[in-house]
Amino acid sequence: FFFSSSSLIFLVCGFATMPIRYDEVLAEEYISNIDEKEKAALEKLKEKVDTRGHDDLYLLKFVRARNNNVDKAAKMYNKAQEFMEDNDFEHLSERYTPFRGPSEYYPAGFYGICRDGCVVGHCAIGNCDGKGIVKTSPANELFRYELWNAAYSTKLRQLQSIAEGRIVDKLTYIFDLEGLGFNHFHQPFMTMFTGMCDVVEANFPESLHKLIMLNPPKIFPAAFAVVKPFLNESTRSKFVFLGTNKAENFKKLCEHIDPKWIPQRYGGPVPDDKINVSFGGDVREDDFLTEEDVFSNPSEYDLRRSECCTIDIDVGEDPTRLEIWLHAAISVSFELIDPEGNVRVKKTNVNFSLTPQVFLVFTFGAGVYKANISAASRAWGKSKTVKVEVKKEENPQSNRAKTLLQAWMSVHMPDHMHLLKESHKNERVDDDDDDE
Q1: Most buried residue among 138, 333, 368, 421 by CB atoms closer than 10 A?
Q2: Is cis: bond before 19, omega within 30 of 0?
Q3: Dist. CA 424–CA 204, nearest whole Å
Q4: Could you tell me which of 81, 82, 62 has the C-alpha nearest to residue 72?
Q5: What's the pLDDT tens digit per position in 243-301?
Q6: Residues 160, 166, 171, 173: is their CA dihedral positive or negative?
Q7: Nearest to 122 by CA among 188, 175, 49
């Protein structure tokens, strides 16, 4: 599609995550066909909120998530934008590299296209080492990884829309429950998993086309029967339940997904190690995150109950990624103030029971940031030591998202690969102009 060429080049090579926009021609055609109630609610929402450059298709998702209630849609949208700003969503694709722990051990990824044209996501949650994965990364980085993953899946849907010549803004998920057991109800893991689900639900609503569950434990049907009455018909219609027989599951999967996209673990022809999807597994102890992994020359601060210390962090003009690592014997609170006096990281309680914790911030412009660390009011009586180390990286770049998107195109959109060559030529010309 000629009209989509520039959009595709921008998506893959100008891969910043904000604002969220689909191909303009396709989006306008889609919006023109929604019903009048949704159109009216969408226009009212645009009057109430700062669209921040997002297109109507993204805003429509909030309208639909709140059943055309504009006030509720505006509240949900504003909260989502605040969350994205707090977590530097704008710079995730180009400046953030996920930690190895969630990248390697969180059993999820994207591969294939369903028969309705939607990108297929995989989540083998039953194969996740619940107790191990929470020891591989700081807690807030597991949430940031899910936000990065959501940004990546948004890019895939934008690309798939171009390949289909129509808007394809939802995902079909294969949710594998084989191996689900009591270890998955480990509280830190449950907090992580439900929190990661909330990240997607709250900030990327109306993204599910179909959820195919297979290999459920015996108790699952009874548990779902309790929940089912509370789900509306539209939501219930998105669930597809399969059994535990691999051959039967493959036949049923083929009704929803062309077999050429089905991995071998589900009876298909594609080797599991060829699809850029992690299927989890036991976490090796040497992959647990420890103090030795993150601290090389920490500063130490002795704090008593309710005491606070302030650390000045000087950054230069160049874009900088700050990693502020903390560790202590008991919880503290942390906040970060930017050079203009604005709160960059809201006051947050930090627990160190599993790993050292980190606050990652991208800065643009010179100045002094102030990190405030406080002992909890109900914490220890005697003074305790808090270890702090600030790491800076100027002009951080990450090619992970770009590499994955290009790999996706080579498999799922081979007819569009020539556009990448054109974009690389354009990039070299731009670089030469900059040098001059």
Answers
A1: 138
A2: yes
A3: 31
A4: 62
A5: 999 999 999 999 999 999 999 999 999 999 888 888 989 999 999 999 999 999 999 99
A6: negative
A7: 175
Residues 6+ apart with CB under 8 A from 313: 322, 324, 368, 369, 370, 371, 390
What residues have CB less than 8 Å from 226, skipping those under 6 apart?
A: none
Task: Give just the sign of the alpha carbon dihedral 260, 261, 263, 267.
Answer: negative
3-class DSSP state of 142: helix
Rg (CA), the chain: 23
Phi, psi of 153 (to 5 degrees): -65, -30
Check residue 283 and report its DSSP letter. Answer: P
Sign of CA dihedral 134, 138, 142, 148: negative
**In terms of Cα–Cα distance, which of 56, 91, 108 is closest to 77?**
56
Secondary structure class of 284 (helix, strand, coil): coil
Secondary structure E strands in 280-426: 299-303, 308-315, 320-328, 332-337, 343-350, 357-363, 367-375, 384-394
Phi first, then psi, for residue 208 (nearest 5°) are -100, 125
Residues present in the chain in total:
436
What is the DSSP annotation of 363-391? E-S-EEEEEEEEE-TTS-SS-EEEEEEEE
Going from the C-alpha of 26 to that of each of 43, 55, 182, 333, the distances in angstroms are 19, 11, 46, 47
Q: Which amino acid does the sequence have at 291? A: E
User: Do residues 176 and 215 make contact, with C-beta atoms less than 8 angstroms apart?
Assistant: yes
Which two structure tokens, joined as six digits, stand for 294? Answer: 């993150």
Residue 402: burial class (beta carbons within 10 Å; 0-12, 13-18, 19+): middle
**Residue 36, C-beta contacts closer than 8 angstroms, at least 6 positions apart:** none
Each residue's pLDDT tens digit, 190-242: 888 888 888 888 888 999 999 999 998 877 776 677 667 766 677 778 889 99
How is residue 120 written in tokens?
């297929």
- Crossing angle of helices 70-86 and 56-65, in 10° steps, is 120
Q: In one letter, which amino acid is 177? A: L
Distance CA 36, CA 39 (A): 5
74, 47 Cβ separation under 8 angstroms:
no
Taking Cα atoms as reference points, which of 360, 353, 357 lies closest to residue 188?
Answer: 353
